[in-house]
Recover the amino acids of this structure.
């Protein structure tokens, strides 16, 4: 599959994925930035931000549809319930945070017949942060007893308040996330 085949018709000026494109700055006339929490094991989330200047995200076992809801300039934080996929090695922490780069989702051959969809992300310097101290402050948590229910979707949006809490806990520079 090529970038042209994955190009969303609402983005006629979007170029195929490029690693050297600058992070878009928010403008008053622009569509408001959205904030996303993506869910993956830490091992997979860390792989997406391991190479400086070549960050990416994959969600929901490589499905393209969830990635098409995300727009360039949106913020994304990865939450890892475990260290390894399907593991019992509980982590429950945010492991990376960044800005979605211009370009449409694209297919990437990881070998062995697995060709997931990805989006490019400019990850910012940050420290991993446990979720437990933030649970009482999050506005997306409706029921403290069932706080993990939203994470089962693999990708969901949160408001600016919640993304700022995550960024602060991860010690990420607010300016690098266009706050």
């Amino acid at each position: 599959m090529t970038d042209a085949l994955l190009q969303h018709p609402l983005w006629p000026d979007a170029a195929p994925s490029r690693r050297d494109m600058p992070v878009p700055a928010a403008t008053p006339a622009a569509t408001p930035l959205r904030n996303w929490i993506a869910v993956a094991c830490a091992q997979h989330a860390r792989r997406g931000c391991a190479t400086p200047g070549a960050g990416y995200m994959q969600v929901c076992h490589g499905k393209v549809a969830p990635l098409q809801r995300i727009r360039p300039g949106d913020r994304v934080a990865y939450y890892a319930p475990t260290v390894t996929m399907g593991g019992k090695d509980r982590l429950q922490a945010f492991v990376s945070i960044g800005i979605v780069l211009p370009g449409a989702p694209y297919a990437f051959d990881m070998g062995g017949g697995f060709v997931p969809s990805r989006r490019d992300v400019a990850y910012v310097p940050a420290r991993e942060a446990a979720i437990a101290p933030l649970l009482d402050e999050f506005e997306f948590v409706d029921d403290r007893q069932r706080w993990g229910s939203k994470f089962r979707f693999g990708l969901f949006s949160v408001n600016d308040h919640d993304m700022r809490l995550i960024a602060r806990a991860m010690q990420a520079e607010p300016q690098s996330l266009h706050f």
About this structure: The helical segments are 3-6, 42-48, 65-68, 160-169. The beta strands are 35-39, 56-57, 75-82, 90-100, 106-107, 117-123, 129-130, 155-158. Confidence is low (pLDDT under 50) at residues 1-23. The radius of gyration is 16 Å.
